[in-house]
Amino acid sequence: MLGLLAVTACAQEVPVAAPQESPAREAVKASQPAAKLPPDRRKFAVLITGIGGEDVYVEKFGGWKDRLRQALVNRLGFAEDQVYSLTEKPAEDEQRATAEAVRQTFASLRKAAGPDSQIFVFFIGHGSFDGKIAKFNLAGPDLSAADYAQLLDGIKTRTMVVVNMASASGEFVKPLSGKGRIIITATKSGMEQNAPKFAEHFIASLANPEADADKNGRVSALESFNYAVKLTGDSFKQAGTLVTEHALIDDNGDGVGHPAAEAGDGALAKTTYLDSIPQQQAGGDLELAKLFEDRMRLEGEIEQLKLRKAGMKPEEYEAALEKMLLDLARLSRDIRTRQKK
């Protein structure tokens, strides 16, 4: 029964083969920029770019921030007015990265975001750890990991992704962890205090098809993490130097990060994306877009159930999986029905 359900639920519509185009026409199509996704008003992003200190870091952090912001708005369907950017040298539509500006930004998010919203928070810069308290360097007084935890707890939303790409960021995993949250850090602890290379590669993953490991046309949070981890490691090997940073991911809410999708981590990140492709697929049909998103959410829950299998009684696992697969089959049927209208 389960095997049949799985096939039914996961079956894809088989498209009619289109006539092959000439190599010249294909080359022209490949050279054309991808269509800009329509803004998704349920998505919000906060970019906190801290103090560089030295000119080389001021320039580097600013460049990373600009590339990240461009990717969010131009490729991934974020509305410009819902991307909050706080930085050392703010442009006209940005704020200076101070503790007060951070608090004001999260206060605005509490009012604007709803239970179905997705919040993405990115840290670019330097962090610190004195053996007890981890902080992220801002202009003026810094905020600690505990301060950010309090700010995030005030926002009640479906999914939250926090990517701390600063030094000493590993200490942010435990305070920020929670249900429905994906926490990614560039380091495994507060003792890794060299300026990380992770940020460059994570941001690059958002615009690089090579990061799409499963070739489904989308890059998940887990794929971006894996891509950045690999390229960061490769950079140390090529330089022949000691590895000074080890990234972590935690998405099961237990406050323990891991260097890969293991020990219960990775399932939520595997089915969480920054893009708005379901909305684009729906062609403006809000009901169809919701069906696509519900299917994606359920696929994520199935992945998480599989990770819990070892700790469940066989009959409990089979019953839970059967129910989810039935729900998935119904959603797929409803999507096909809606598409025919």
3D architecture notes:
With 341 residues, this protein is of the alpha/beta class. The protein folds into two domains: 235 residues, Rossmann fold, CATH 3.40.50.1460; 59 residues. The strands form two sheets. A seven-stranded mixed beta sheet has the order 3-2-1-4-8-9-10, with helices on both faces. Strand 5 and strand 6 form a beta hairpin. Helix 1 packs parallel to helix 12, helix 3 runs parallel beside helix 7 and helix 7 packs across helix 8. The longest helix is centred in the last third of the chain and has 27 residues. The radius of gyration is 21 Å and the shape is globular. The two termini are 31 Å apart.
Write the layout of secondary structure elements.
Blueprint: H1 2-10, H2 23-31, E1 43-49, H3 55-74, E2 83-87, E3 95-96, H4 99-112, E4 118-124, E5 127-129, E6 134-136, E7 143-144, H5 145-153, E8 159-164, H6 173-176, E9 181-185, H7 198-205, H8 221-239, E10 248-250, H9 267-270, H10 277-281, H11 286-307, H12 314-340
Parallel strand pairs: 1-2, 1-4, 2-3, 4-8, 8-9
Antiparallel strand pairs: 5-6, 6-7, 9-10
